[in-house]
Amino acid sequence: MTAVTGESALQGNGVLGQPLDIREDPQLLRGEATYVADIDLPGTAHMAILGSPVAHARILSIDTKAAQELPGVLKVATAADFTDVMPLPCIWIPGGVESHFPPHPYGLPGARPVLTGDSVRHVGDPIAVVVAETPRQAAAALAAITVEYEPLPVVTRADEALAEGAPQLHEAVPGNLNAYWTCGDKDRTDAAIAEAEVTVELDLVNQRTINSPIEPRGAVGDYNAATDEYTLYASTQGPHNHRFLLAALVLGIPFNKLRVIAPTVGGSFGTKGYLYPDMALVLLLSKALGRPVKWVDTRTGLMNSTVQGRDHRQHVTLAGTRDGRITAVRATSYANLGAYPSTIGPGVATALMGRSISGMYDIPAAFCEVYAAFTNTVSLGAQRGSGRAEAAFLMERLVDRYAFEIGMDPAAVRRKNLVPKEKFPYDNGLGWTYDSGDYRLNFDRAIELSGYADMPARKTEARTRGKRLGVGIASYVAICGVGPSTRMSKEGMLGGTWESANIRVHPTGEVTVTVGSASTGQSHATVFAQVAADELGIDPAQVQVLEGDTQKAPYGQGTYGSRSYSMAAPAVALTARKLKAKLVKAGAVFLGVPEDKVVYEGGGVHEEGNEENAKTFAELAMAMWYGWGLPPEIEPALDETTHFDPPDFNYPFGTHVAVVEIDELTGETEVVAYTAVDDAGNIGNPKIVRGQIEGSIVHGLGQALMEAAEYDEDGLLISSDLNHYALPRAADVPFFTLDKTTTPSPHNPLGAKGAGEIATVPPAAAVVNAVVDALGDLGVRHIDMPLTPEKVWRHLRGEAQ
Amino acid sequence: MDLSLNVNGRPEQFSAPPNELLVERLRDGLGLTGTKVGCDTGQCGTCVVRIDGRSVKSCLVLTASAAGSRVTTIEGVTTLGGELTGLQEALREEHGTQCGFCTPGMVMALGELVDNTAGREAPTEPEIREWLTGNLCRCTGYHSVVRGVQRACSAARAGESAATAPGQEV
Amino acid sequence: MILTEFDYVRPVGLEEALTLLAGTPGARALAGGQSLLPDLRTGAARARLLVDVRHLEELRGVETAPDGTLRIGALTTLAELAAHPLVLERAPEIAAAARANGDPQVRNLGTTGGNLAATGRATDLPVAAIAAGAEAELAGRHGRSTVTAEELAASGVPAETVITALLVPPGGPAGAFEKSADRATRYPLCASAVRITTDGPRIAVTGATARALRLRGVEDRLGAGPYTTDNVLAAFRAEPRELFVPGRGTSAEYLGHLAGVLTARALARAQAHA
């Protein structure tokens, strides 16, 4: 595909869907973008946070005297300094079930205090802060703080945390159980399994992984005593959300006294939508010191404080007929929430996973139960594909296990059970109603493109090279477009989940689009300009896009769950349509013809059948700016806002096929080919989506092959830096074979579905399926991730069955 | 210690502690924040700059040890808002960046590869991927970057453009 | 990103460097710094004074002595070493080991001497130097001396001395290096270097063993060959079990096996080139 520049796409209609060059890129390529660590306000002081070195202990004493006396130290603070600050809240409670949380004064579920005073509950739990003139002085002072601990027993696994006699983390949470949550029909599922011709079961560990955006988090607080106003600059996915949570539920200050600005954000993958203590601390300390206060995390700090992902231990069962018809699926999952409930972690671990387990298949009976438990580990949160990836993993592993059991080709089993096209909208029996799809078209395309039929021959050929070749399929449906606010309230979400856009047409005809979302690398400015330009029929080059500043942008929720293009972009389109409608009304006045004779085209209006009687976009903009001659029912100026709350979610889907080769002597697994056919509905800019798909797949491959957050028995995170936590590198992956199918969603005016993270959902399952396929004749039925060479080698040798 | 360093063609003189890393000098001392910090262990590559033409990680070099050298940072590759180099243009065409945090380090590291290519065989895909070992990216999965480098190298080989700006000696 | 405190000095010549190293408690030589600086950050290494030898021109460059010995200056960077025509031709195991190191940026600063002298982790060059039958030239206040690469790996660089050169005897293309890299650090999980000589193979491994080690037992068992994978693996299995040590997340058993596989592959490659 060749890129289209703004110039040649001048006609507007048709701009959307084109692979326009990304307007953010030149600035990024020149290193000119400002990230939070690059902000240097005059008079800035630097904050450092003392995290607990132990995973579970009572704090007996904290001595800060020596630290206070060190050069450059402006302030040392502990929990005792912030007794009037409320704890951070948790705003996604598993819906419809009894749940237990630490308390928050507003009767909400509480998460964690800004600094812990009584006990530490994970390594990295913040105990004290230092503010000093320089980062070096702050770091030196941290080392001079003495804390006395009384060690408590440690638990790091969810299933173990629920056992009798396990260490208790929170007084308010008996037995460490946050919630026992279920979805689906238990009786029917149990009955179907009991009556089934064939059942297969697996015990799965979906290991904890660390999101690892390349930019660690950071925050700058700037309190203005003259106006009593606070400004927070933070690496955030949702500045409005953070403003609301911090002002109303943590600091207890008027909403209009806090402004939150997201500068350029260096990747997030879920992590930067969460509320963290540092965000409140820089504001509080800026007020206390009368200076801007800046904090930038280190990599090890990130790994011990920023939310981590996945972490389910599961027992799963699939039932079916001998001829390949799936009749039931059941999952029991132990979800590890970490030491404190993160902002939305409990919902991620329950609903996002549980309701998604049936995937692309039409299954008569399904049931999922989740035990969400607290342990002495970093809090759990979202991670690219969160919940849905765990669901796809268990389902796709089960399908392969079942296919093997009945001696059928895994592709044939899948094909037989796909939800048929005519069944949409499809109620999956677990709480989701799939909006639209042609799963067979998508599935067949992926299978064909992957050369699936040639695999037996390729396996034989590989053996001549000392390699075992395996092929693994994984299909998925990934709920996106969170979402319908009322529906989300039933899931336990304490907040509206709509999205917004404002468009202003300036007197000279340029346009500014402002959205409530905030990019963390998704090229919003490019694609939202395309949406506005396409609707208005103007050149995208004349459309400016702003976001990320609560003072400028209309209220919105931010970027998460691949929602911006199916939530914010529709808001842009609807706003543009409001403007067009107004221009048609006003055009009737300016052209002196009845409204039904006004044609809006190419950004301007003309009289039907008389293109001479016309006004260009710029002329209309100026005329509306002056407002001369407008009747009372038409307001001057062109400035419209939309708050878009969709009727339901959207459900992108896809099929991935991984081909691996295993070195028979070393057990090393290499992904040698990877095919992905994803369906994200109508796409705004294929260049952006292609990049997101590619990156998402590599992220998923990382979990399959190398990534694991490992805690030792004392709760120490062993993999706490990039020397101990491997991320995929360029040489770890081949080029992929990508294609798409397009099934528009009926739930938004663009027919869009989520795209950003969806391709992270199936790769782990596809790769494990491929490896098990390669080793199937050795009796291997499952291998837990990550698929390290030694683990695979032991299976090659017939051990560890 | 009193030190001097040539950064992006400008002589800089300053006093720095012996244990200061070059990345600290560039970002905090000289305000050249295009060079990033993403890890504490020399793995991520966001701090890559070029010293006397060679790409290096500025978190693994003492300022004192770099003294007397010619250092080029991302700010020295183009002017503010200026025309992109051949490599940057190729990366832009392939959308080899998303959040952009790893991008300056990648541009600096890959600049050496593309410069080395001038007039020679273009590097193979495995060679490009190997060259990227020192740069971590979580957004793109590297593919668009690799395609960008392939594009830039074939241009560089043909002598159409180089990684560095015209007239810029790195 | 904050290092522990130390002083820094940049001597103008080797003699001054040696005087500084000998005369200052806690002094350490700084060459490329690619492992020393991270270690100074984590506290794995300590220094009161860093003597920066990186700029000593006298320790750079690759040349051939009259007897055919390749003299590789200790400050020759790994990038230079990996690409040097003489090294590629006469000691391909050394070029390959240099090439396998870290990433381009680490190779641009990391030095031959630094890689040979590294402690606390397995590095790539020592096994290649052992297989090549190389010696390290050392300089101290009391003059120069040489030590075999094998001895150097066993006892480390003596106090108050620096490596000035790697001396590689006349060789040829019959050497090879194989590595399985740790996914996170790129240091060897296990590496093997071999050279096939008229007396049989010379074989050294690292990562799987407590330090870079020449495996004479394996060499003797393999003798003149044939070096089939089965033979090589059997020769490794005959080594005492305690020779192999566990790595991070890997068992001694697996690493011992991996060392055999890598050695078999290196031997096959060396034979193909011979």
UniProtKB/TrEMBL annotation, chain A:
Gene3D superfamilies, sorted: Aldehyde oxidase/xanthine dehydrogenase, a/b hammerhead (3.90.1170.50), Aldehyde oxidase/xanthine dehydrogenase, molybdopterin binding domain (3.30.365.10)
UniProt cross-references to PANTHER family, sorted A to Z: ALDEHYDE OXIDASE 1-RELATED (PTHR11908:SF132), XANTHINE DEHYDROGENASE (PTHR11908)
Keywords of the record: Molybdenum, Oxidoreductase
UniProt cross-references to SMART domains, sorted A to Z: Ald_Xan_dh_C
Protein known as: Aldehyde dehydrogenase
InterPro entries in alphabetical order: Ald_Oxase/Xan_DH_a/b, Ald_Oxase/Xan_DH_a/b_sf, Ald_Oxase/xanthine_DH-like, AldOxase/xan_DH_MoCoBD1, AldOxase/xan_DH_MoCoBD2, AldOxase/xan_DH_Mopterin-bd_sf
Matching Pfam families: Ald_Xan_dh_C, MoCoBD_1, MoCoBD_2
All residue ranges annotated as the Aldehyde oxidase/xanthine dehydrogenase a/b hammerhead domain in the record: 30-153
Lineage: superkingdom: Bacteria
Annotated organism of origin: Streptomyces cirratus
Automatic annotation (TrEMBL), chain B:
Species of provenance: Streptomyces cirratus
Protein name, per record: Carbon monoxide dehydrogenase
PROSITE patterns hit by this protein: 2FE2S_FER_1 (PS00197), 2FE2S_FER_2 (PS51085)
Keyword annotations: 2Fe-2S, Iron, Iron-sulfur, Metal-binding, Oxidoreductase
Domain 2Fe-2S ferredoxin-type, chain residue ranges per copy: 1-77
InterPro entries found in the cross-reference section: 2Fe-2S-bd (IPR002888), 2Fe-2S-bd_dom_sf (IPR036884), 2Fe-2S_ferredoxin-like_sf (IPR036010), 2Fe-2S_ferredoxin-type (IPR001041), 2Fe2S_fd_BS (IPR006058), Beta-grasp_dom_sf (IPR012675), Diverse_Oxidoreductases (IPR051452)
Domain of life: Bacteria
TrEMBL record, chain C:
Keyword annotations from UniProtKB, A to Z: FAD, Flavoprotein, Oxidoreductase
Segments forming a coiled coil: none
Classification via Pfam families: FAD_binding_5 (PF00941)
Signal sequence region: none
SMART domains listed in its UniProt record: CO_deh_flav_C (SM01092)
Organism: Streptomyces cirratus
Protein name: Carbon-monoxide dehydrogenase medium subunit
Database matches in InterPro entries: CO_DH_flav_C, CO_DH_flav_C_dom_sf, Diverse_Substr_Oxidored, FAD-bd_PCMH, FAD-bd_PCMH-like_sf, FAD-bd_PCMH_sub1, FAD-bd_PCMH_sub2, Mopterin_DH_FAD-bd
Record domain FAD-binding PCMH-type: where: 1-215
